[in-house]
């Protein structure tokens, strides 16, 4: 039996104990994990330093370095995140709805754990903490397989968290797969006897790889080829503030903006303003023929560019003539993640909200808010871009399922 199967079986066994655990027990588990991360921060940061140095040596200047990096501030944010999740209301046992049938049966729809959550993800070691914390809080065990570039960080983090669980809940509730072999991921995607759902986080190609090979049900967390549409009546200073925030703050994250659509009525005025502002932040600006004609600083965008999720300081601009054209463009090239419109026009805002195919649609705000913490969910296991089971940031309720509880008093079905 492979190490992967052994760990998946152990996680499955632990999931039954977790399903029976009390709210206070799971809260205490997360508090203990949070304390452990702080107490062992030195070892965790040393492991992370090794990962960063090894990755940087082979990928100098890569924007993924920022995703990989942990420091004291980020590690404390991880620990604080566990405390926030611990303080959230317990979703388990919640009665979603209930009714009485004509036969006198009392039917309750109750929220319960999913069981075992398998997570496969790239680069970011903070994801290891987020997913483990949310999974346990919702009564699930987890099998984690992070990217090979973060292997030392992830192994140390899980080692610390498992140790913190002693005497509280089964240590086997958290499993880490340390193998760097891609074949292990492919095997994990088929362990439907032990893993109840797979949640992938990473690039579009990585998520597609998971979707095409999994026999375990998958909840896709999507790439973020996100757009901001600056309408003809937009407050242009507001637009600049929002776009700078969405593009520059953390360009490699999935809720950053990659494309800006500008209404033709204001293109001559606004594009030079935007290009100048992007220049102050060392952003490379690409664009269509109209944008290039307006500003000589704009580099030609190819058809491939409109599909690309830029992970660096690159932005592409396209001029459109209506909110309808903006929506059509987004629905063709977007990844159903986060889309925004800057406008004062309620009719155009309503059209945009109703017709853009995305998990999160913003009016006059940055796409950077697509995040479980910012939504008040505590943390998230990812941002789902599919339409079944969960959509958008997935917090505690999104990693539970339901069962029907039926109370009777001797009823039998006649026909």
Protein architecture, described:
- By secondary structure, the protein is α/β, with parallel strands linked by helices.
- The protein folds into two domains: 246 residues, Aldehyde Dehydrogenase, Chain A, domain 1 (3-Layer(aba) Sandwich), CATH 3.40.605.10; 144 residues, Aldehyde Dehydrogenase, Chain A, domain 2 (3-Layer(aba) Sandwich), CATH 3.40.309.10.
- It has 15 helices and 16 strands.
- The strands form four sheets. A seven-stranded parallel β-sheet has the order 10-9-11-8-7-12-13, with helices on both faces.
- Helix 10 links the parallel strand 7 and strand 8.
- Helix 2 packs across helix 7 and helix 5 runs parallel beside helix 6.
- The chain is globular.
- The model has no long low-confidence stretch (mean pLDDT 96).
Instruction: Examine the secondary-structure arrangement and name the CATH architecture of the largest domain.
Output: 3-Layer(aba) Sandwich
Under CATH, the homologous superfamily of the largest domain reads Aldehyde Dehydrogenase, Chain A, domain 1
Backbone structural class: alpha/beta
Arithmetic mean of pLDDT: 96
Q: Which helices and strands appear, and what pairs or packs with what?
A:
Layout: H1 3-20, H2 23-39, H3 41-58, H4 64-68, H5 72-87, E1 95-100, E2 106-113, E3 116-121, H6 126-137, E4 141-145, H7 151-164, E5 174-176, H8 182-188, E6 197-201, H9 204-213, E7 226-230, H10 236-248, E8 257-263, H11 267-280, E9 284-287, H12 289-294, E10 299-300, H13 303-307, E11 314-320, H14 323-333, E12 338-342, H15 346-355, E13 360-363, E14 383-384, E15 392-393, E16 400-407
Parallel strand pairs: 3-4, 3-6, 4-5, 7-8, 7-12, 8-11, 9-10, 9-11, 12-13
Antiparallel strand pairs: 1-2, 2-16, 14-15
